[in-house]
C-alpha cells in the first residue's frame, strides 16, 4: 500500500485538536563557537561546561552516505587522519591545535571556520526561532537534526513548558532548515561514531547540547512573553555582493527569416489522454526575465463562447519547459514545451502559448509571445488502444 492510499485514512482516523490562543514569535541570532552549555557526562558522572567550535567538516563527510557515496578512499566511521589529505586541507586552511582538540573524535578534513574567501564557507552565526501558535510550538532549527537529536529537543521543550505553565497541552513540531543551513546536528553519542552525519556536525561534539539550552530559553521566553536579545548580526550576503559564474546574456537573434515566438514544431492535430504533446518556439534567453509570478508557458482550452482559459502553466507537473542554445555565435535559441495530457482532461480544442523576452543587440530587453496551432483532445472509445506520442 502506498502513501497516497494510507494518508487519507490517517487523516480521517486521527485525533483532531483545535488550535486556540495567541501568536508569538521569538528569534535570536547566535554565534555558535562562542556559546557554552552544561553537559552531564554519563561515563564520568560529572557535570561539565562544554563549548562550541569553529565550523569544520570531518573525513567521513567525504565518504557520503548510503544514498550517495563519496569518491576516493573515504569511509564512514573514520576517526584518524591521513597525511596526504591533511596536506590538501592545509593548502586551503590549517586547523589550529585548539580546533583539533575542540572537535574531539572528528578528524578535520576541512577547517571551514577558517576559510573566508570569498565568503564564510560555513556560518558561525545561525538563526534560531520559536513560534508559539496557541497550543502549538514550532521550533525552527537551522540544520538537519537526526531522529534522536530531534527527540531530545522535543523532550527539552516539553520539560521547559512544564516548568512555566501547567495549563497547556502543547503540540511540539521541529521544523528543519529554517533561515540558516548548518549541516547536521547529531547527539554526542552519534558524533563519537563519526559516520557521515557526525562528521557533518560542524560545531563539535556538543552542538546539540548548545541547541538544547538555546531552545529551552526561547520557548520559556515565548510562553512568558519575555523579550530576548537579537544577538549578533550575520554577514550581509546580499545579491550585490554575491559572486556569480553565470555569463551575462549579450544578445539574442532569431536567425534569418524567423521571429521570436515563431512555433517551428507544431502539435499533432488529434491527441488522447496520456499522450505527450510537444511544441517548439524560437526564443530569447530565459534569464532575460525570470517570469516571477508569471509563466513561460500556458496550456489553454477553448470555451463555447470562443474564449480561451488557462488549464496549465510551467508550475504544473504535467508540463516541461526546456531551453536549448542553437547557436552561440548568433545568440539564437529555441524552447521545447511538452504537455502530458492528463487522464481526466476534458475533450475540446487546445493550444500552447510561450512567453519570453529577447535582448536586442543594440540594447534593451523586449517581450514576445508565440502560440501553437490548435489541436483536439479526444477521449478514446472503450476497448480502443490508446496511442502515445513522444
Automatic annotation (TrEMBL):
Domain Neutral/alkaline non-lysosomal ceramidase N-terminal: residue ranges: 11-212
GO cellular component: extracellular region; membrane
Listed name of the protein: Neutral ceramidase
EC number, as in UniProt: 3.5.1.23
Residues that bind Zn(2+): 144, 184
Cofactor needs: Zn(2+)
InterPro entries: Ceramidase_alk, NCDase_C_sf, NEUT/ALK_ceramidase_C, NEUT/ALK_ceramidase_N
One record GO biological process: long-chain fatty acid biosynthetic process
Organism field: Vespula germanica (German yellow jacket)
Manner of cofactor binding, per the entry note: Binds 1 zinc ion per subunit.
Family: Belongs to the neutral ceramidase family.
Neutral/alkaline non-lysosomal ceramidase C-terminal domain residues: 218-377
Catalytic activity: an N-acylsphing-4-enine + H2O = sphing-4-enine + a fatty acid
Keywords on record: Hydrolase, Lipid metabolism, Metal-binding, Sphingolipid metabolism, Zinc
